[in-house]
Fold these 2 entries.
Entry 1:
Amino acid sequence: MTEFLTATELDAADPLAHFRSEFEIPDGIYLVGNSLGAMPKATRDYVTEELDRWAALGVEGHFTGKLAWKDYHGLLTDQFASITGARSEEVVAMNGLTVNLHLMMVSFYRPTAKRHKILIEDHAFPSDHFAAESQIAQRGFNPSESLVLISPRDREETLRPEDILSAIATHGDELALVLLPGVQYYTGQVLPMADIVQAGHDVGAVVGFDLAHAVGNVELSLHDWDVDFAAWCTYKYLNSGPGGVAGAFVHERHIADQELPKFLGWWGTEASSRFEMATTFEAIQTVESWQLSNAPILPMAALRASLDIITAAGGVPAMRQKSELQITYFDRILAETLGARVQNITPSAMNQRGCQYALRVTNGDGKRVYEELAEARVLCDWREPDVIRVAPVPLYNSFADIERFVQILDEIVI
Ligand SMILES: *Cc1c(COP(=O)(O)O)cnc(C)c1O
């Protein structure tokens, strides 16, 4: 007979357990890092350092020291590359996620009379839907003809991988762009990114991913998968704080392409000549040529604080290893304790899920359950129409958090 380990034993054996003390965790059980990651204690120091440099140096801070602000975005590059499985010339920290999606579509959505469709999911995150729709309209096409929405089958919750691939094949030479999430924000499903790229390229389409729920959650190999572009925010699993600076990836093989349309700004031109204020654009030979404005130093300082912790913890592979143990534990005690009273609509296969659960209360009482969880100081979120999302984040959630959550849920759900 198998003896299962208790939460206490699992926490005692967890090599990442001590990282919890590097975070400020709000009172209660914090299970909402999928929406806003907890604050690293070091964030205060990293941000204060830049405030102090500003106070002491004023404008000279742009050019002084190893943290010179004119190069500051470059301090994030190597860690972004390792988190996304990219080369350093393929990733940059800039703007917000939706802004980056637009900038990427300016370059990579190039509709023609024949090939004009963008394939997204029905019930994509609204911002992604709006971005794709408005890009289509901006180019003079009609979203009702050019925006293709794919949905799960009737009475199913998540997209079947084969249905995604066959939808791509069906739209074939009318498909300009496939824009899908790496991890679906509502269900927590991990999409088969490598297969999607292959299917998209097979029909001559460009493939981009929104990695908002994927970065810092699951392992990624953007370069090797041959993804054309990607964008992500950093305030979810990368703990950069509210409104934190976002990321973008452009595959190496597109970087030197002079034919790509691109919106330009002075931060995309070669740093060596930038301050000569010439009006000839000399594109930086990396994804940094997509940068527009000088970088927001304070949010970037906050992001550095968190990425340094992730690096110290062994990066995404180490976090994912713990996450899989937490998922296995969570699945088991949820089934033992609540049985059929609660259903997790996240796929059960480990390679199709990250750390987020999408729980549905079987008797339809979900909204009340969510409200009582909130009263019991369980921080999670409610997503219309009927899902409670909870995410044990390996960097700062313990097995005991999961155990306590299930106990409270058991008391609340009838
Ligand atoms: C969180 C999230 C966003 C948020 O967009 P912002 O531009 O950062 O406000 C967009 N899309 C997806 C899929 C998300 O999960």
Entry 2:
Amino acid sequence: MSENWSKRTQAVHGGIRRSQYNEVSEAIFLTQGFVYDTAEQAEARFIECGPDEFIYARYGNPTVSMFEQRIAALEGGEDAFATASGMAAVNGALTAMLRAGDHVVSAKALFGSCLYILENILTRFGVEVTFVDGTDLEQWKAAIRPDTKAVFFESMSNPTLEVIDIAGVADLAHAVGAVVIVDNVFSTPVFSKAIEQGADVVVYSATKHIDGQGRALGGVIIGTRDFIRGTVEPYLKHTGGALSPFNAWIMLKGLETMALRVNAQAETAQKLAEALEGHPALERIMYPGLKTHAQNGLVRTQLGGKGGTVLSLDIRGGKAAAFAFLNAMTVPVISNNLGDAKSIATHPATTTHQRLSDAQREELGITPGLIRFSVGLEDADDLIKDVKNALEVSQA
Ligand SMILES: *Cc1c(COP(=O)(O)O)cnc(C)c1O
């Protein structure tokens, strides 16, 4: 295993461990437990469990471990802990390190369930949370205090696609010794270099681009060995957020094709965004790859100019027009996953962000006409034609 391999090579070979049969494709160890040769060996393993030793699948499993080592290698982290879903990863990263009385600063533009953890769960256990406009470094600077323990943000927010300056926020957080936890789903492991840019902990919903074909739930927390094994593992292994070995195998194989898929999806997203920019049926189009996007400069420095696989469209005419648009499309499916091979369209105001108040939605730019559009692997021209036709229907 070479530390010098690029992401593409790590994604194919990183973390592999072969059984005595020397299989090419990674084995699925669909086992909850492991047999000890002797009672003494069992005792010794409970005292100290080596890297290639296992006790119980809630603590670790060879297939899960291969996935953890592969994503850690391609992300440039020392270690990783895989979880049953992206939300188990977000919750695990935060809850494992925080205690009553701690202070956290978070961007306010978050996926609904991330917001719920910060706003409703952490605060219930005495953690103080200050929310800021994540794109405004002055607000981060004003909110971060000498006793701030962690900062949290989505590096590209769901669904309004604001891009947050990882290096800028990390500088402010590190000045007071706060841990920088980044939910990196929308930036994807393909385009982001979050750890290199200052993130201490990176969290993914593997359900999205890592699987990329809508088959299984999964998540992962990546960070230093100390944070993963010393802080995250004790919390997660006792609270039961483990990823199943079968789902880990899906994610492991997903990583092998992820760069091809995500690059192709982002290329189509860019084409679609350019084809739709200025369309009379649109109040706004949000895509970080467009030159008119507010943080396009940051997209160049932080993401190599790649705008990702998702765009958001604000359709003139509010909810009725947005629903007419969704119902008129024939290629994308109406669903709420993203990063899938199939294009997926979502109406956040009535689904993923339904729980928020009207005022909260307005503050976050989640208007009644907003559609989140995850671009899949279909032909770009088919998608452009279908979306343009549906936009016309929406205005009829
Ligand atoms: C989907 C998503 C999650 C949650 O992931 P699950 O695998 O559905 O639990 C967290 N953060 C972001 C930004 C997401 O898009």
